[in-house]
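User: I'll paste a sequence; please echo it back and then give the predicted structure.

Assistant: Echoing your sequence first, then the prediction.
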Amino acid sequence: MSFVIKKIDHVQLAAPKGCEEAARGFFSGILGLAEVEKPEELKKRGGVWFEFGTFQLHIGVEEPFSPAKKAHPGFVVENIEELKKLLNEKQIAFTSDDNLPGASRIHVHDPFGNRLEFLEWI
């Protein structure tokens, strides 16, 4: 092949129109992701972008909206027990899943119903 795929630049999740404040509250306020400014031409589409490490998470407006119930991004976490504690404090439900050998992992739904996976390799 004459090309090489090097890494994932970003993941996009869909959300309903008017999602921006709820997205900021969850992804920035609770999960601690830094918001990044969208390019001027894309701002008019709505949504909001976040960054962590060298990756971005884009929340994009989709109408009609339907949350991703099975498809999901998987985020590697350091100290998943602290994340669980924070989610409990914020009354955000999660399910533990011990079906992946060598990993402690949970599944959470964002404010729009999209499935998210968080895991820590042991």
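The two ends are 36 Å apart (CA to CA). The first strand starts at residue 10 and ends at 15.
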